[in-house]
């Protein structure tokens, strides 16, 4: 019996199909510039894919861990700092199991966003208190990130510019990214993922040749409290993986379970390798007094051939986007939480603008 397809013509003109409509042929998809993987994994409108969420989370974790962890861990644990990073990464992976439970609760209650889930799970009044707490947390976090962003830009790229001008430009760029939407931000960093990581791996490769392994010893001599403090610092840095719960609004089902744990493992591995190289170059004692060791490493590494004179400026230009991912994400999550708290359904752009202005004055204090 011949199979009748009522809407085959319209199905061929769309990227989506149903079991009753034939899948577009490979030749037709190639003619329209759509690969088989793109057809299978293309995100819906205002929805980010698993790969996009994973790459965005890796960029956020690396931006914070590479800047703040090496000197903090060296100050607490010295040559045993690598074990603090390993232990902190394991704790973050255990924390990820808690996030999976929360994700399942969101899917069972059919809550669209994490702020809405807080009201469903804890009740309206307790949920609103938690929403207010998250709003304050994100605001302080955004102020710190904006300050750090502007300060690093002035120190490494724009040394003669005004702090306020740089801060205003950074927040204006972040405001534009937030207004463009999470999907647009995820697509940008999906493309920039390897653009950021490949130069980083190349820099670490050239730096590894100068490592003195004698700086890695002796080990197992740190005090338990110092080791616990260093491990706690690593865990707190990687605990920002809970931002994935706020991405759940635009993410797919099971996105936290499928990508967040992998992002922690990748970021922890890169951070551990970075720490060993920094320790092998400078020693644990000197490393503990450095403010931003990775920036010092960028200025020290010289690539062969002489085609790149300012390695530090080039690398920070790439690191600029990783820091921007964190800042934009924090402002976006703050807007999402505050909009739920104030029950604002329209005027999201104005709300983002008000938050950006507030962050400007907060980062200037």
Topology readout:
Blueprint: H1 8-12, H2 26-31, H3 36-41, H4 50-77, H5 81-109, H6 114-122, H7 124-156, H8 163-180, H9 182-208, H10 224-238, H11 244-247, H12 255-282, H13 284-288, H14 293-300, H15 311-342, H16 348-363
Helix pairs in contact: 4-5, 4-9, 4-10, 4-12, 4-15, 5-10, 5-12, 6-7, 7-8, 7-15, 7-16, 8-9, 8-15, 8-16, 9-15, 14-15, 15-16
What does this molecule look like?
The chain has 365 residues and is an all-alpha fold. It has helices at residues 8-12, 26-31, 36-41, 50-77, 81-109, 114-122, 124-156, 163-180, 182-208, 224-238, 244-247, 255-282, 284-288, 293-300, 311-342, 348-363. The chain starts with 7 loop residues before the first helix and ends with a helix. Helix 5 packs antiparallel against helix 12. The chain is globular, with a radius of gyration of 23 Å. It contains 16 helices and no strands.
Any key phrases for this structure?
365 residues; mainly alpha; disordered N terminus
């Amino acid at each position: 019996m011949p199979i009748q397809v009522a809407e085959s013509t319209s199905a061929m003109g769309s990227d989506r199909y149903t079991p009753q409509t034939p899948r577009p042929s490979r030749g037709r998809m190639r003619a329209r510039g759509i690969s088989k993987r793109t057809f299978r994994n293309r995100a819906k409108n205002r929805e980010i894919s698993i790969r996009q969420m994973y790459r965005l989370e890796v960029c956020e974790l690396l931006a914070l861990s590479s800047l703040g962890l090496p000197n903090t861990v060296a100050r607490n644990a010295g040559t045993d700092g690598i074990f603090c990073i390993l232990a902190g990464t394991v704790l973050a992976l255990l924390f990820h199991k808690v996030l999976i439970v929360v994700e399942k609760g969101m899917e069972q209650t059919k809550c669209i966003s994490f702020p809405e889930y807080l009201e469903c799970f804890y009740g309206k009044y307790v949920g609103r208190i938690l929403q207010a707490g998250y709003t304050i947390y994100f605001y302080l976090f955004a102020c710190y990130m904006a300050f750090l962003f502007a300060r690093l830009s002035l120190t490494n790229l724009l040394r003669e510019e005004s702090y306020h001008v740089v801060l205003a430009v950074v927040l204006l760029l972040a405001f534009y990214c937030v207004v463009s939407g999470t999907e647009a931000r995820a697509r940008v960093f999906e493309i920039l993922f390897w653009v950021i990581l490949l130069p980083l791996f190349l820099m670490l490769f050239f730096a590894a040749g100068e490592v003195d392994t004698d700086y890695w010893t002796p080990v197992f001599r740190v005090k338990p409290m110092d080791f616990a403090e260093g491990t706690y610092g690593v865990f707190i840095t990687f605990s920002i993986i809970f931002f994935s719960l706020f991405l759940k609004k635009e993410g797919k089902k099971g996105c936290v379970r499928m990508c967040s744990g992998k992002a922690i493992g990748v970021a922890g591995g890169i951070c551990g390798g970075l720490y060993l190289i920094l320790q092998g170059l400078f020693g644990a004692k000197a490393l503990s007094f450095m403010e931003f060791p990775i920036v010092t490493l960028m200025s020290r590494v010289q690539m062969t051939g002489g085609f790149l004179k300012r390695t530090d400026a080039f690398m920070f230009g790439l690191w600029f986007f990783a820091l921007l991912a964190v800042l934009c994400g924090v402002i976006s999550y703050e807007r999402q939480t505050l909009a739920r708290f104030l029950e604002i359904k329209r005027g999201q752009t104005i709300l983002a603008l008000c938050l950006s202005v507030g962050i400007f004055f907060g980062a200037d204090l």
